[in-house]
Amino acid sequence: DKSESNEDALRAFEIANRFACSGQDASAECHGHGGSLSMLARLTLTVRGDAAKSLSYASLVLKGDTDDETKIDAHVIAGQAKMLLGDAEGAIAEYHNALDLHAGQATGEAHHHLALALQRTGGDAHAVASHFEQSLNLGFPPSAEATEALGEDSIAIRRAINRQQWAEYERAQALQSQQRGGIMSGGGSSFDSGASGSVFASSNSAAQQPDDAGSSQLDLLAEGAAAYDGTVPTGEESGGDVGDGGVSP
After folding, report:
1. How confident is the prediction for the chain on average, in pLDDT?
2. Are 92 and 114 in contact (CB under 8 A)?
3. Under 8 Å between Cβ of 135 and 99
4. For residue 20, is pLDDT > 70?
5. How does DSSP assign 104-136, residue by residue?
6. Is the pTM of this model over 0.90?
7. 45 vs 24: CA distance, rounded Å
8. Interior angle at CA 82, CA 81 and CA 86, nearest 5
């Protein structure tokens, strides 16, 4: 179950950050590990819906010494939490702070949420459209809000949809490749559910475990070899013709 997996991941990040703080002075504020603390903030918001707790985690990330990529992510999460807490202006400020940093993977997400925040607070339509477009150009997936603001014929929307479809195609191809690889290596072959090898493996496995009939054939061959006197048949011994079952001259 996906919700259970997310909850398990959240608890794992909580444990990791408590461990990171365990060796510090109890009187000092612990900022934990920036990356895992940022993920903890995101999961607390999306899985548990606890905006206040999520904001506290994101704030700890921003107080710590971490890289710009992590800070962008924390600003975005803080902005989302503040929107849920009714602080639209504070959310907009967080998104702007994210965009002031060197562009990272979450920059497109920052543009998208800034566009949403401006849209919901009656912001300039041109600025809304611009941020939606920039989010799409940076790889953020197309949303209903972005499509409505830009129009279905927008180049940014079309490119984003094409990119999304191509990603889905590549995932499907990768899945098919894995399935083919499973059959080639003997994993999950539907041709013989009891077989442990590949369907392309040698078919002489039965010869490696001869049955009684096979043993009898070997005995007959051994007897024939023992009785062989070295004479090479010429075909003249039978003296008959084709009609008598012999060999014709």
Report:
1. 77
2. yes
3. no
4. no
5. -TTHHHHHHHHHHHHHHTT--HHHHHHHHHHHH
6. no
7. 27
8. 120
